[in-house]
Every structure is written in C-alpha cells, then in structure tokens.
C-alpha cells in the first residue's frame, strides 16, 4: 500500500477553501481515479506543536493506492484536469510525497 500525501503549507497570504476541497475537488479526484483509489483522508490544520502556534499546514490530503504503479497509471491520464482545479480552492503550491505504508 502507498499513500500520496499532499500538503498545503501555511504561509503569509495563503488561502484555502476547505468546503470546496471537500465537496468538489475530492469528489472529482474520486470520480477520475475510480477503483484504483483505495482510500482518502482530509485534514485541516488547527495548531502547531506549541500551544497557540499556527498549524504549519492549512490542509493535508491523503490518497491510498495498492502501489506506485497503480497511482501513476490512474493519475497520469487525469493529472491535467486535477491540477487545473487547484486554483479554485487555494493559492498555495502543494507539496507532494509518496510513501510506502508500513503500519
């Protein structure tokens, strides 16, 4: 199992529309990736590790797939459409990491 994690850093002037992300963007991703997508999680940052500090990320999205190859095969044909939707909910350049799930 692999997890594709997309983080949206909290920086000065950043905006993130969580309602759009959850109600429009994620359903778009689900529809386009179909059965290859095994699971989705969305997190909204509320605080940093120190009490009262801001969250380092406004949002985190996680997508699960059976393998990197399955992710690439399902995402590749739809990458342009998925990426074109990003300006509709944020002005943040997302950071993407692909990880192998160990536990």
Largest sheet: 4 strands, antiparallel
Secondary-structure element sequence? EHEEHHE
Could you tell me the CATH topology label: Alpha-Beta Plaits
Going by helix content, strand content and strand pairing, the class is alpha+beta
Uncertain regions spanning at least 5 consecutive residues: none
Q: Write down the Rg.
A: 14 Å
How confident is the prediction overall: mean pLDDT? 97
Q: Give the overall shape.
A: globular
Calculate the terminal CA-CA distance, rounded to whole Å.
Answer: 10 Å
Quick summary:
The protein contains 3 helices and 4 strands, in the order E-H-E-E-H-H-E. It has helices at residues 18-33, 68-75, 79-84; strands at residues 2-9, 39-44, 57-65, 95-100.
What do these coordinates show?
- This protein is an alpha+beta fold and 103 residues long.
- The chain has a single domain (2-100), classed as 2-Layer Sandwich (Alpha-Beta Plaits), CATH 3.30.70.
- Helix content is 29%, strand content 28%.
- It has a four-stranded antiparallel β-sheet.
- It is globular.
Question: Any key phrases for this structure?
Answer:
103 residues; alpha+beta; Alpha-Beta Plaits; four-stranded antiparallel β-sheet
Task: Summarize the topology.
Blueprint: E1 2-9, H1 18-33, E2 39-44, E3 57-65, H2 68-75, H3 79-84, E4 95-100
Antiparallel strand pairs: 1-3, 1-4, 2-3
């Amino acid at each position: 199992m692999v997890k594709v994690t997309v983080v949206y850093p909290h920086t000065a002037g950043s905006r993130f529309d969580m309602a759009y992300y959850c109600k429009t963007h994620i359903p778009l991703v689900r529809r386009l990736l179909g059965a290859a997508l095994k699971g989705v999680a969305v997190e909204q940052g509320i605080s940093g590790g120190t009490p009262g500090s801001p969250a380092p990320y406004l949002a985190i999205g996680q997508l699960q797939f059976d393998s990197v190859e399955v992710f690439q095969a399902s995402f590749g044909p739809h990458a342009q459409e998925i990426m074109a939707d990003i300006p509709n909910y944020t002005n943040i350049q997302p950071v993407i990491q692909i990880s192998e799930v160990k536990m």
